[in-house]
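Dear H.,

Thanks for agreeing to be a second pair of eyes. The structure we're designing against is below in token form, covering all 113 positions.
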């Protein structure tokens, strides 16, 4: 997740088609001018680009995305160690015995076939 939380919020708003890319660019420039004193979401509301309800929708979507990314990252960190464990377990397992085909089983005299 290389995006800043503010830029991620803006990109999600664009993705959800709540604002245009031009509007995001304008809001990001303004955000940069005020030195980060105002949050991007507040700027988008002040400029009439988003309603408070839309901002809440974007914030929820951002939180869900962050949680998914963290879960994916945690799974990626755990996967190599699990892979190593399964390899170690596989090395200690005995090779499965070859099954004898039924046709190769000797038939004893007097036994019912």
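And this is the sequence the design step returned. I haven't edited it by hand at all.
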């Amino acid at each position: 997740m290389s995006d800043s939380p503010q830029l991620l919020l803006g990109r999600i708003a664009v993705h959800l088609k709540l604002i245009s890319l031009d509007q995001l660019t304008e809001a990001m420039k303004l955000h940069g001018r005020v030195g980060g004193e105002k949050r991007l979401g507040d700027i988008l509301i002040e400029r009439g680009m988003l309603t408070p309800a839309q901002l809440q929708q974007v914030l929820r979507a951002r939180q869900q995305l962050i949680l998914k990314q963290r879960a994916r990252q945690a799974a990626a960190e755990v996967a190599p160690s699990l892979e190593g464990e399964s390899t170690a377990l596989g090395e200690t397992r005995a090779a499965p015995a070859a099954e004898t085909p039924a046709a190769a089983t000797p038939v004893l005299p007097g036994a019912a076939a």
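Two observations from my side: The mean pLDDT is 81. DSSP finds four helices and no strands in the chain.

Warmly,
E.
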